[in-house]
Amino acid sequence: MNIHKITTIEDQNTGKIYLHKEGFFWKAYQQSSYIFTQEIKAFKISKKWAKTVEREVVSIGFPENALEKFFNEEQLTKIDEKQIVVTGYLFRVEDYQQWLAFLSFTVRNVSKR
Q1: What are the residue boundaries of the structural domains of the chain, listed by start?
Q2: Please, what is the Cα angle at 43 between 39 and 49, to 5 degrees?
Q3: Backbone angles phi, psi at 29, to 5 degrees
Q4: Which of 16, 19, 99, 108 would you call most buried, defined as having the most Cβ atoms within 10 angstroms of its Cβ?
Q5: pLDDT in tens, 52-71
Q6: What is the third-level CATH fold of 3-102?
Q7: 77 near 85, Cβ under 8 Å?
Q8: Are 28 and 68 in contact (CB under 8 A)?
Q9: DSSP code at position 107
């Protein structure tokens, strides 16, 4: 799923964690990453400018085999092979916006050759 579709879904998110499989990792974006880090486990957040959607995008990621550490099978609703939804969380837009404002951008080190 491309970042445009992901941010469109997240803009309407009111208390779910959407997980997207990317390679061997599950990733949560935007509101989903906020809910995950507040309700499940604190993770290092990546905050980058996404040129294709012209906005900041935040995400977390964890290995595929860690999924069962964070969620029971009953909590997960499989949309397809690359997307899972976890429901039942509280979400306040104001809290998310404050959290987002305090995150710093992820800077990639570029080596000079």
Answers
A1: 3-102
A2: 110
A3: -120, 160
A4: 19
A5: 999 999 999 999 999 999 99
A6: MutS, DNA mismatch repair protein, domain I (3.40.1170)
A7: yes
A8: no
A9: -
